[in-house]
TrEMBL record:
One of its GO terms (molecular function) is DNA binding. Residues 10-62 form the Helix-turn-helix domain. NCBIfam families: excise. SUPFAM superfamilies: Putative DNA-binding domain. It comes from the Bacteria. Residues 59-89 are annotated as: Disordered. This is Helix-turn-helix domain protein. It holds the Pfam family HTH_17. InterPro entries: DNA-bd_dom_put_sf, HTH_17, SinI_DNA-bd.
Amino acid sequence: MDDIDQTPELLTVAETAWQLRICDKTLRRWIKKGRIFAVQPAGPGGRILIPRSELDAVASRQHGAHRTNIEQTPRSTSGPRPRWKRLGR
């Protein structure tokens, strides 16, 4: 994550989504739900900016949650068989 150390103090939605490796729409949803703090200096309808400190906090929460989910999720080999259609013949 060396790229994060060189980013400005306020990031756009596109820059933050790229750093977190998520879709812009997902980030906007997280902002709306309050999961990520963001500001709109120009008011409603203006550009949304995310503080770099928030990016660092979310990245650490996201990384920790991902690790615990992998450890706690049992691997299942059973399940419904895929319904494949044979083409040709």
